[in-house]
Amino acid sequence: MPVILLTGGAGYIATHTAICLLEAGFEVLALDNFSNSQPQALERVGQICGRQVPLVKADIRDEAALERVFSEHQISAVVHFAGLKAVGESTEQPLAYYDNNVAGTVTLCRVMARHGVKQLVFSSSATVYGDARQMPIREDAPRSATNPYGQSKLMLEYILADLQASDPAWRIAVLRYFNPVGAHPSGLIGENPNGVPNNLMPFISQVAVGKRAQLAVFGDDYATADGTGVRDYIHVMDLASGHLKALQYLQQQPGLVAVNLGTGRGYSVLEMIKAFSDINQVAVPYQIVARRPGDIAECYADPSLALELFGWKAERGLEDMVRDAWRWQQQNPDGYCS
Ligand code: NAD
Ligand code: UDP
Q1: CA of 226 relative to ligand 1 center, distance in Å
Q2: Cα separation, 111 vs 59, whole angstroms
């Protein structure tokens, strides 16, 4: 039975995707160096699905380790999540980002090619659109980056396009995620940031559960309806099913596609706070502070290409996002150590 390799398999988006793939009848193998995750996350996936996910501890930059994995398993496709993702950290440690994200992906592709595995789904990001002029954002919008994290994703988009152009046997889906939030409805797996969360939703959850006193809202003077930043939040289970659809698409279609995974609907920071506290009946104290450097006013997808190519669209709304995020946070106040 062919196996789908999930790099970064113990991470937030990969664990949710593993559930979708297992439920659709795929065999999966997770590979992770646990730099930002714990093996317990995959044990929880096993609990949800009634079977354990095989796991290899390895780094995608370790070519010899990848060689062993591809020799020992009958891998048919790779969903490549592994990478570092903190924007602020990337400006402080650019080399770590270029090494993990860019060099790691080049190593992975080299080993894949050597083993004749040429189907790849790649985790890109809406960050490649920079400060987009036109909303909603279509895939053919100009791309740019303002920090080493975004730059690493942009470089990889070019590298993968060159690779596919050099050898049409490659089938590649570049998925540009908007803002993934929420958790599996079981509350058993979810987002588990190390230290102070950078992202809005985990910060709101930690304030609501009493781990942090209040949320800092970064600016209320943007050119948006209420002045706070607007983003396209997408439930992580919708994002997960987008990966399943992308894999199924690649089984039918050669070439490279770059596709937005978003809902097409933007919500402001204040709308997110209100939804979280109203639906979950919990207080989320906040204070307006200065803008965060590098932030943009608004960012939301035109998700129509995903519907056209993959037959995929987001099914879950804001209520599901905030309810599921809260269930995970309440059941696991200290993440997987709870
Ligand atoms: P995550 O940190 O939870 O998952 C990434 C996983 O990769 C972690 O388990 C980490 O330990 C592992 N990893 C990192 N470097 C590795 C290496 N060199 N070798 C092996 N494993 C390694 O992050 P996530 O939110 O699940 O993100 C998954 C992917 O999606 C990343 O590539 C990220 O850049 C991208 N992405 C995430 C978001 C988001 O908001 N979460 C948005 C857009 C794109
Ligand atoms: N944000 C905020 N306070 C926080 C974290 C985020 O006000 O503690 C705002 C941020 O300015 C942006 C939105 O929430 O308008 C989403 O930020 P996040 O970092 O989650 O995603 P990104 O900016 O990468 O889209």
Answers
A1: 32
A2: 13
pTM equals 0.98
Distance (Å, whole) CA 290 – CA 19: 40
Cis peptide before 285 (omega within 30 of 0): no
Token pair of 98, please? Answer: 């270029």
Q: What is the rounded (10 degree) CA torsion for 162, 36, 25, 52?
A: 150
Q: Which domains does the chain have, with CATH numbers?
A: 3-182+233-262+303-311 (3.40.50.720)
The 10s digit of each residue's pLDDT in 171-183 is 999 999 999 999 9
- In the DSSP assignment, the letter for residue 3 is E
Retrieve residue 222's tokens: 């943007």
pLDDT digits over 117-139, tens only? 999 999 999 999 999 999 999 99
Cβ neighbours of residue 335 under 8 Å, at least 6 residues apart?
38, 192
State which H helix or E strand residue 46 sits in.
Answer: helix 40-49
As a whole number of angstroms, the distance between CA 71 and CA 182 comes to 36
Active site residue 149: yes
Catalytic one of 149, 177, 222, 300:
149
